[in-house]
Amino acid sequence: MSATLSRHGPLRTADLSEAHEAVSQIFTAHRLERLDRKAPFQARLDAVTFGAVTVGYLNYGADVQLENQEELEAYHINIPLSGNTESWSGRDSVINDARVAAVFRAGLPGGITWSGKCTQMCVKFRRQELEFELERLLGRPVPDPLRLGVSMDLTTPASQDWLSLLSVLRRDHGQRAGITQQPLVARNLEVLLMQGFLLAHAHTYFTGGAEGCSPAIRSRMVKQATDLLEARPETPFTATELASQVGVSVRALQDGFNKHVGMSPMAYLREVRLRRVHDELIASDPGSVTVTQVAQRWGFSHLGRFSLAYRGKFGVTPSQTLRTS
């Protein structure tokens, strides 16, 4: 079976309604609200569809908010090429930039607070075809729908390979004689993009766990979780929330941490927080901050347990570290 490329745009418009209609038709129906009335609204959209895959480049020129209150019918991945956005899928949210893509799950509502300076590459996979490709990779049926982590680390080797596939389409788009204009090539690229995404991004299923994934995929799940904890250690994560962020079950996350890190996710988070407190106390002026202020800034709410953990790790009390800074 072949896939034929269908171009959308390019669209350049200062009309909010026109931009809203175009994006709704190409990607998904949504509500569009302009947040910044001072910056000139100038939407730019250029997209292409081949088979089950749509890839587009979109910028609004002004701060906007997009919201889909109904369940999404496809899987969406938004990759900032400049600037950043805050996105949410269901009850999970992520701030994404050139290093972290936002992933929107089929079957859940979602939305984006989109900076006017941000241009994104928007990728859409039709739900049925992406789940079929997962079955092909695993060699067995999987429960529906596929559950994905809402943030995708774009710095991993697998993610970089996947982005390279997208760059082929980006370079070739608009060329009348480009190789992707050939139906068989477009079909192969369609499958490669879906399978590449499934192999690059952590995922599991509502009734599963990580047992259906390869050791390499499980390792990437742990890497995504540790990166998240290192980037936002002050966030009051629970094991359930962290597992949801990377798209695995709590049991799978705990098993992965015990195997690859040697401790539980929450123990790892405590270690990160203790290091951050220690580093800040060493660099601080004893006359300008207190131990309590620093500890609370890094997520420690129970000061007694914090002091015991700190002394157990560093051999001195937090106050002694601050006094000798």
Briefly summarize what is shown.
By secondary structure, the protein is an alpha+beta fold. Helix content is 42%, strand content 24%. The strands form three sheets. A seven-stranded antiparallel β-sheet has the order 1-3-4-11-6-9-13. A five-stranded antiparallel β-sheet has the order 2-5-10-7-8.
Description:
There is one protein chain. By secondary structure, this protein is an alpha+beta fold. 42% of the residues lie in helices and 24% in strands. The protein has helices at 16-26, 127-138, 157-172, 183-200, 215-231, 239-246, 250-260, 265-283, 291-297, 303-314, 318-323, and strands at residues 5-13, 31-34, 43-50, 53-59, 64-68, 74-82, 85-89, 92-96, 100-104, 110-114, 119-126, 146-148, 151-153, 203-205. The strands form 3 sheets. It has a 7-stranded antiparallel β-sheet with strand order 1-3-4-11-6-9-13. Strands 2-5-10-7-8 form a 5-stranded antiparallel β-sheet. A two-stranded antiparallel ribbon has the order 12-14. Strand 7 (85-89) and strand 8 form a beta hairpin.
Provide key terms for this protein.
14 strands, Arc Repressor Mutant, subunit A, 325 residues, alpha+beta, 3 domains, Jelly Rolls, seven-stranded antiparallel beta sheet, 24% strand
Rg result: 22 Å
Please work out how many helical segments DSSP would assign.
11
What would CATH call the architecture of the largest domain? Sandwich
* CATH topology label of the largest domain: Jelly Rolls
Q: How does the overall form come out from the CA principal axes? A: globular
CATH class designation of the largest domain: Mainly Beta
Beta strand %: 15-25%
Query: Order of helices and strands, N to C?
Result: EHEEEEEEEEEEHEEHHEHHHHHHH
CATH homology superfamily of the largest domain = Jelly Rolls
End-to-end gap:
68 Å
Unreliable stretches: 205-212
Q: On the 0-100 scale, what is the average pLDDT?
A: 84
Largest sheet report: 7 strands, antiparallel
How many β-strand runs? 14
| Helix-strand makeup class | alpha+beta
Q: What percent of residues adopt helix (DSSP H or I)?
A: 40-55%
Please, how many domains?
3
Strand order, main sheet: write it out: 1-3-4-11-6-9-13
Pfam family, one: AraC_binding_2
Protein name: AraC family transcriptional regulator
Keywords: DNA-binding, Transcription, Transcription regulation
Organism: Haloechinothrix salitolerans
